Amino acid sequence: MKRTVTFTKEQIVAYADASGDHNPIHLDDDFARSVGLPGVIAHGMLQMGIAGAVAAETAGGGDRLRRLVCRFSGMVVPGDRVTFSADSAGDGKLEIRAVKENGEAVLTKSSAEYV
Fold first, then answer.
1. Which of 25, 42, 49, 72 satisfies CB 3.0 to 4.6 Å to 76 for a cystine?
2. How far apart are CA 94 and CA 44, in angstroms?
3. β-strand pairing of 105-114 with 2-6
4. pLDDT, tens digit, for every residue of 39-92?
5. Is the CB of residue 52 less than 8 Å from the CB of residue 68?
6. Looking at residue 93, what is its pLDDT?
7. Please, what sign has the CA dihedral across residues 31, 37, 38, 44?
8. pLDDT (0 to 100) of residue 25
9. Torsions phi, psi of 89, nearest 5?
10. CA separation, residue 12 to residues 44, 45, 52, 92, 111 (Å)
């Protein structure tokens, strides 16, 4: 299963509102640049949520998913196009990937377990 997402500022703001995480690195370009970032960045948990949805769909439904593990390894900024995938890694296990168009992984050491 694969899903490609082009991240937008509107999506990041909507996630901030839904999650209650209003850290200015996700909402204010000037603030984000003042702390050394290229501008606003997407929440890691937004990325993990998309990865989890892809894993759940691959596993045959969210009720079958038992564990999701990931390591955040790269920044996602508005305009980045990221492909999330979940592939079989043996009985009841999935390997999860999230890779930008330029080949940079944004999630690594990521996996899921299901029943």
1. 42
2. 20
3. unpaired
4. 999 999 999 999 999 999 999 999 999 999 999 999 999 999 999 999 999 999
5. yes
6. 98
7. negative
8. 98
9. -130, 30
10. 11, 11, 17, 32, 24
CATH class of 2-114: alpha beta
Query: Do 107 and 98 touch, CB atoms closer than 8 A?
Result: yes
Tell which residue, 44, 39, 40, 52, has the closest CA to residue 85: 52
pLDDT digits (tens, 9 = 90+) for 14-45: 999 999 999 999 999 999 999 999 999 999 99
pLDDT for the residue 24: 98
Contact 86, 55 (CB under 8 A): yes
Under a CB-based contact definition with an 8 Å cutoff, are residues 73 and 105 in contact? yes
